[in-house]
Amino acid sequence: MTRTVHVFCGPTITGPQVRQILPDAVIHPPVRHGDLLRIAAGPGDVAVIIDGVWHQAAPVRHKEILFLLASGVIVVGAASMGALRAAELAPFGMIGVGDIFARYRDGILTADDEVAVAHTPDDRLPLSEAMADIQAILTQAEADGVITGEEAACLAGQARHLHFTRRTWGALAAAAGPDSRAALDRLGHWRSARAAAASAKTGDAQAALDLIAAGMLPAGPPGPWPAGQWGNMYLRDWLARFCGVDVDDVHVPLELMLRHQQIYSADFPRRWRRYVLSWMAGEPLPDPEARALHAAEAAGLSVRYLSAEQVAYWLTPAEAAELDDREQLARILVRAVAHDLTAPLWPASVSEASAGALLDPALDSAGFAAAAIRCNTTIAGAGPKRTIWHLREDLLRAHLAGLWDTGPDGEDLTAAARDRGFTSAADAIREARRFYLLAVGVLRPGTG
To answer: For 288, what's the count of Cα atoms within 13 Å in the CB-facing half-sphere?
Structure first.
């Protein structure tokens, strides 16, 4: 069986070092929130987490790893972020490798910054020392008789008082008291003689890759837990936000395709209404609207029980005056559902039937979104304050009003936005920023 091995690495071990052990590995930067979902790994594939971010960006979430495990992906952790997450998720089937993983698992190491280092942004060269590496060196130096146990403990304590971004041997020497100078001198000479020795983190990373290369990792399901209720609304949101399709080397998440349909598909309000009321009815029926309205009325929800202020919040004055009670109720139900963050409405995968019910194949949302991403990137690179977040709101309002045949202000624009699944006109304007520059022809596809 052909499988893909994805390796997330950075300061602990470089891409070329990984390929010396696994020539066909797909190399990724240190893992961050969403990265595991973007790679579209499938059953039998391997995701190896060595390095990860947690200071400059959101770290990889536990639910993301659980999603891969539940999907039949083998997830391995070692050395750094991988060791930490493996210790936390070993009961769920994540495979931990190495001494650092074992020390986290056994509670000997407890702090995240034991493995954290500062590094350069592009080539990810380490700028500081991991506490786990410092501790390993001190332990070995004590075993070799270079320093005493008391000196090793004292230096370790002083190193832990340094912030991980400043934790270097030079900073330790500057912070150490007079009583530690002799020990540091002996330690410095000993370290110089062992300059070629790999760090503990690098050694653990290499051990994990060696196991994969030798085919010695266990395979199979992670246990019975995937059959239970372990997911949540956040995971569904992350799947839509990060999973998707690749268009000409541009990754387009499902959420962006749906947002494009919400704004630019003339038929989207009809599809959204049927989609919402079918969900409320509990099954796709020939007439889900009637069943949904019946269920709402049976639960005591009726327009006649709403105050004038409540009706005015959801309906325009014309709708409140001209529509019958059932149509008013239907519109309120459709418009209100987007405000329920717990409703599992938003599709989590392009392959879900719900996505097919909302995506009109006649509108190439993936292609347009990919072109919009390239356009926005090109414009942003032209100078300061040229990002989509600096676009004037009145231009965006007018753009939506023209598309939806409403006025740019007031109840009509808000009602049109809610009929398309947005919570408000402001919500729609925020999402329209991502497409506006391309839609109005600031930069045509294929130019720049």
So the answer is: 17
Residue 448 pLDDT more than 50? no
Residue 144, φ and ψ in degrees, nearest 5 = -85, 0
Q: pLDDT tens-digit profile of 87-109? A: 999 999 999 999 999 999 999 99
* Same domain, yes or no: 181 and 222: no
Give me the chain's average pLDDT, please: 91
Distance, in Å, from the CA atom of 330 to the CA atom of 310, rounded to the nearest integer, reads 15
Same domain, 42 and 168: no
pLDDT of residue 181: 86
Q: What is the pTM of this model?
A: 0.87
Name the residue among 35, 14, 202, 6 with its Cα closest to residue 123: 14
State which residues form the domain around 38. Answer: 5-117+202-231
The answer, yes or no, to whether residue 376 has pLDDT greater than 60, is yes
Predicted confidence band of residue 197 (pLDDT cuts 50, 70, 90): low
Report the C-alpha gap between 393 and 426 in whole angstroms. 9
DSSP H or E run through 75: strand 74-78
Residue 206 lies in a domain: yes
Mean pLDDT of 156-181: 90
Angle between helices 233-242 and 62-70 (to 10 degrees): 80
Residue with tokens 């390095």: 51
* Rounded CA separation 25/47 (Å): 10
Q: Where do we find the tokens 């506490």?
A: 131
The Cα–Cα gap between 394 and 436 comes to 12
Provide mean pLDDT across the span 41-45.
92
| E strand or H helix that includes residue 6 | strand 5-8
User: Would you say the C-alpha torsion 299, 303, 305, 307 has a positive or negative sign?
Assistant: positive
CB atoms within 10 A of CB 184: 18
Q: What is the pLDDT of residue 342?
A: 77
193 and 207 inside one domain: no
Neighbouring-strand partners of residue 251: 246
> What's the confidence (pLDDT) of residue 447?
45
Given the structure tokens 């891409």, which residue do they identify? 15
Sequence-ordered list of residues with C-beta below 8 angstroms from that of 5, at least 6 positions apart, any chain = 22, 24, 25, 26, 45, 46, 48, 212
Q: What is the 3-state secondary structure (H, E, C) of 349-375?
A: CCCCHHHHHHCCCCCCHHHHHHHHHHH
